[in-house]
Structure of TIGR03915 family putative DNA repair protein:
Amino acid sequence: MTEVIYDGTYEGWLTAIFEVYEFKLSDIVFAKNETSGTLLFATSHLVVTDISKAKRVLDGLKLRLSAEGFSNMYKAFLSELPDIEETMFQFVQHVFANTKNVEEDFSNNAVWYLRKAIRLTRKEAHRMEAFVRFKLTKDQLYYAIIEPDCDVLPLIESHFKNRYADQRWLIYDAKRKYGIYYDLENVATIELQFNMKVTSSKYLNEICDEQEEFFQNLWRRYFSSVTIESRKNMKLHIQHMPKRYWKNLIEKIPNVN
């Protein structure tokens, strides 16, 4: 067994694919840097991300996949499902071993698993576009904290750039410890340590605009007022807005006093 260790990026994984073919590695298991060395009796192959190698793999896939199928590879990678790197590698092998497009070859297990991963990532990205709740700081920065199941920040940045083009904002993924920041011109990826005590009135007073608490409570009252008790269906509500998102939704946090 060969443990292929890469840096956790999509470009790193593509480089790893190139080197698997280049060095004729077999019985592959992928590992990110921080989780390497966990397999006993496995030989290790350390991958250094090489954009030229990654591009050669992408160019090969682009020739054999539809435009949608090509972009879906990245969405599958962002799903972070267990063994997704191995499944994607199996799919790549299937693609390169055939002269015809294999995207609809559902007799292949990798095709089925990739379809599942793609649906999951798309669904999570759509939810994040709906569930992001911004708060305003004293320096007029709108920030939001999310903890999605998939790594969807790369997929939702264009949505928020287009929708909130006239204000500075930061969306921070607390699960993956990085965020995307818009400065009125460009979106940049940043890494930072973020204070997660978002429900603390002391915290709000320290960093938030003086009107932020008022507007948060106003939003909660509006949300409560439009709720028709006789029509409330909690099962359906939780289906569309799972409880794991609630701690970052203003309308689900009690009034700050």
Notes: DSSP finds nine helices and eight strands in the chain. The chain has two domains: 2-124, 132-252. The longest strand covers residues 2-6.
